Amino acid sequence: MMKANYILAAGLMALGLSVQAQTLDRSKLPADAPAPVIKVGKPVSFTLANGLKVFVVQNNKLPRVGFSLLFDYLPIREGDKAGYVSIASQLIKTGTKTRTKDQIDEAVDFIGGSLNTSPTGVYAMSLKKHTPKMLEVMSDVVLNPKFTQEELDKLKKQTKSGLASQKDNPAAIATRVSSMLVYGKDHPYGEPDSEETVDRITLEDCRKFYETYYRPNIGYLAVVGDITPEEARPMVEKYFGKWQPGEVPKPSYETPKPPAKTTIALIDRPSSVQSVVYITHPVLLKPYTPESIQASLTNDILGGGGGNARLYNNLREKHGYTYGAYSSLTSDRLVGRFRANANVRNAVTDSAVAEFMTELKAIRSSKPTAEELKSTKNTFAGNFIFTLEDPETIANFAINTARYNLPEDFFANYLKNVDAVTEDQVEASAAKLIDPEHAYVVVVGKASEVADKLKRFGDVVYYDVNGTKVDAPAPGKLTTTPVGVTADQVIEKYVTAIGGKDAIAKIKDVTQKLTTEIQGTKIDIESKQKGLNKFSLAVTAQGQVVQKVTSDGTKVKMEGSGQSKNVTDEEAKMEILKNAAFAELLYPTLGAKTTLAGTEKVNGKDAFKIDVTLGKKTISEFYDTETGLKVQHTAIEQTPQGEMAINTGLSNYKEVNGVKFPHTLTQNFGPMVMKMETQSLVVNTGLDDKEFAVQ
User: Fold this and answer.
1) Cα–Cα dist 101/612, whole Å
2) CATH for 44-167+192-241?
3) Counting beta carbons within 10 angstroms of the beta carbon of residue 428, is it exposed (0 to 12), middle (13 to 18) or buried (19 or more)?
4) Is 44-167+192-241's fold the same as 263-462's?
5) Segment (H or E) for 398
6) Could you report how far apart the first and last alpha carbons of the chain are, in Å?
7) By CB distance 3.0 to 4.6 Å, which of 126, 209, 292, 557 could disulfide with 113?
């Protein structure tokens, strides 16, 4: 037995050494496994007499059914009424000939369903047992909308409010201006909407859109869920069979071209501490083609693959310029677009652009490594297979097969086609579709700190937030300092504008309650002030206090995320200034230095900019040059993404006990913009000092 065991052990050792030698030999990659065979379920399809094409995908995992209606029309040029297509699609859900908006919402809520409309379609979902009722409501919305001026006015107001908030959002500005440059303002993908174009929209414009484009003969209806084709067909015919077809326009547009040479499009934001950088140009790339598959892999290697992509590894991991750098290659039947983007600090904006250019040129002129391509394919395949778990994916496959006249086995063979892409094809795809020598480098940032350094990449052209060319700021100064005006005069005018020192002195305490919404979650804010320097600020979400700041006039306590911190001295003084209702009256007491930095545009109007410095920190206050009222407060805050300028807009001033208080506040935080509306504001309620105690 001992001898037998020895021989067995020796054999295992030899086998182990042999395997180990093969494992450590990294000169050759392991042989690729064959691409997984994808079994794409085939939906049952039929077409109604009016031309509506229906695809039924049965999935019994959950007792619910979804209906996704897509209208396949070419993009619409909206002209001087840009925005009417989006508003019309929302208006369709606001009432029918037999139901008011409230009745529609109640009917959908009662059965626990959902109903949404968009410019290109309608989506509805409910439990299986409520399918007939859901289809009844959905078809009523699609076939019998009633457009009213009251609902249109509401939507126009909401749209204009959103447009106004975007003007101070760097990412929104970059997206808006880059679209205008890439496609042109006369192209559907590039034409800008504005408060003025929204004001011109009429009920007739919305009706005309609906009557022209909501037609069954360009419609694709996906029915997905716990329903058989035999159950679906009679219901679809019952509720959509009488829908009348119509002729739908097929406009043509000139194909946008890239710039003759690389151009720097600079949108000046004097308060920015970082720049939003987009490098972008149009591309000719049709969807669902061999070229689009190659382009997808190319983009994933460059910047679409997250932490494994070249741009991310270069700009974040190697140089530390940003928290993330990405790219996209968009296919489209009219015209696609390439974009590489990142948010970077002002000081490294030009260095970041240089690294972008290095990577864009490198992927055009060299093949990816075999390991790099293999890893990308594996990730790509994993993501693709994951989407197959959603039955709506199968319905979308069927719809796109019909829309784009694809081979029946296109999606079944998709991963085989991905696996067949070679290193040569990736290089060729990049050379064809990525062109840094003919691109727009759109930068939204502080021109005084970045403009000169960007000139090495191309001509610097200045634009405003509406994509209109403007003159460059005066060299070395972005604001103008009015002759004969001082910081003290601006502050004195503000104090007078809100009621004067005597009226302010009568305000012993203030309690203000505001609400806002973030990603569907209601946020409540309660601010309490006593005297000039005591305050408490509590932020509540879903019944829980998520953040609280309290000051007894000397010390400040900050609480949030289960942690608390007390600050004193200059840091506490700055927090008091940032939160005080009448901070201007505290400047002499706290030793704050004020400097009139000049004038800047805030919401399109001139405002005096006062820099307020305490120790090493500075905040900026902006006062309307005509009314004297404060319209914006800017502070530089440390965030997980580095330093960021947080702008708080103040508007809708209303008088309470002889003093004007802003009742609407807007605040940016990265790409988000919060609008906070005052629900109540009361004064002189006798607040107890205990509410401001700092332990």
Assistant:
1) 50
2) 3.30.830.10
3) middle
4) yes
5) helix 391-403
6) 78
7) 126
Residues in a beta bridge with 611: 595, 620
Rounded Cα distance between 47 and 32, Å, is 43
3-state secondary structure of 688: coil
| Residue 535 in this model has a pLDDT that exceeds 50 | yes
Extents of the domains making up the chain = 44-167+192-241, 263-462, 487-692
Does 353 have pLDDT greater than 50? yes
Worst-scoring range by mean pLDDT, 38-42, 52-56, 443-447?
38-42
Residue 409 corresponds to which tokens in the numbers above?
A: 């086995």
86-114 residue pLDDT tens: 999 999 999 999 999 999 999 999 999 99
CB atoms within 10 A of CB 280: 24
Strand 440-445 versus strand 274-283 pairing type: antiparallel
Residues in contact with 524: Cβ distance below 8 Å, sequence separation at least 6, in sequence order: 513, 514, 515, 539, 540, 541
Rounded Cα distance between 653 and 628, Å, is 12
C-alpha 294/C-alpha 297 separation (Å) is: 5
> For residue 126, which of 231, 222, 225 has the smallest C-alpha distance?
225
Lowest mean pLDDT, pick from 75-89, 300-314, 423-437, 489-503: 300-314
Mean per-residue pLDDT, 654-667: 94
Count of beta carbons in the 10 Å neighbourhood of residue 619 = 19
Quote the CA–CA distance of 634 and 666 in Å, as a whole number. 12
Does domain 263-462 fall under CATH 3.30.830.10? My reply is yes
